Amino acid sequence: MESSLVKDNPLLLPLNQDKTVYDGFITVQVSFYRTTFKKVLHCCWQLKHLLRGYEHIVKQVNSTRPAFPLSLQEVGLKSRPDCRSIPPPQYYSQLISEMETLGWAKLLSIDTEFQTLRLKAEDSSGRQHVLTVKLKSKHPAEAPECSADLPIPLVITWTPQSTLDQLHSQFLLLLESLTEFWDVLDEIDSKTWILEPEKPSRSDTTRRIAIGNNVSIKVQVDPRHPKMLPECCLLGAEHVVTPLRNKLNANMQLWNPDSSVLHNLRDVLEIEFPSPATHEKSSFSVECGICYSYRLEAAIPDQVCNDPRCGQPFHQACLYEWLRALPSSRQSFSIVFGECPYCSKPITVKMAAQKS
């Protein structure tokens, strides 16, 4: 059967080794005969089963032509194990009607199945966002699956009477509720040097901000309360981090929710953060003392020798493997104790997290 199928339809390509699923185009012969009252469609029963519900579309193609033999050339049919998964004709009519109401300018893309749409939206600050909508074959009776790059879960309200325009409006309202959160992070991104994440997304709530050479602070901003004191973690050698931690604890009550997070951090820590206007990022991108690279996959050197005369940074994974290989090192629970590869002063590192 497979050889005859390919022979009769050379534009088909097998999609699996068993050659049971194909993609491509086939040519079928359909004839119409006009009677006094109606047109009659004649074809094999398999094709008629496949075109059930679509007869009026096929006949519409032939309505501007005289009678009668019609060759439907290059019908784009994707092989499916179950043809019943193809949405009914009213699905497409409903989709076109809803897109006309929403506006075609808001459609970024749509897949070949006409079921996954990417809609664009803009918040009041001019930020561009994308809402991915996967429609069900029984749309609008079934709620679609929606996803977007957001720091909170995307929850939508849907009824059988809902439309894409209403869905888009809900998305815009959610974006507006997060405007202040993104304003806070955009200010931090533009006025400081961000060590992690390298390319922040709209769903990221944390920033690791450079303070100095091998010293940084990781802040996690609450999307619901973006101007409140965020969770803070100071990273670096203890002799540098300790004074900053003491200032943070002593000045915490000075935090003003009416001011920006960056302004508050400056006041509480009593420092000025290096910025793109004052420093080059290379000043903070110090390579690991073991692998001699700055980034190891997504990680940057965050383990620092506490000796003030050394202060060499290392990747956690690199330092862990180095110390574990030394006969003089010892381990207690998840902590490995050993000597700095550079100055031989005592150094510790937590066991590298195992990837699942």
TrEMBL record:
Residues 288-344 form the RING-type domain. Coiled coil: none annotated. It is an enzyme of class 2 (transferase). Pathway: Protein modification; protein ubiquitination. Pfam families: FANCL_C, FANCL_d1, FANCL_d2, FANCL_d3. Its EC number is 2.3.2.27. Keywords: Cytoplasm, DNA damage, DNA repair, Metal-binding, Nucleus, Transferase, Ubl conjugation, Ubl conjugation pathway, Zinc, Zinc-finger. GO terms for cellular component: cytoplasm; Fanconi anaemia nuclear complex. It comes from Dicentrarchus labrax. This is E3 ubiquitin-protein ligase FANCL. Transmembrane segments: none annotated. It catalyses: S-ubiquitinyl-[E2 ubiquitin-conjugating enzyme]-L-cysteine + [acceptor protein]-L-lysine = [E2 ubiquitin-conjugating enzyme]-L-cysteine + N(6)-ubiquitinyl-[acceptor protein]-L-lysine. One of its GO terms (biological process) is protein monoubiquitination. PROSITE patterns: ZF_RING_2. One of its GO terms (molecular function) is ubiquitin protein ligase activity. It is found in: Cytoplasm; Nucleus. The lineage of its organism: Eukaryota, Metazoa, Chordata, Craniata, Vertebrata. It comes from the Eukaryota.
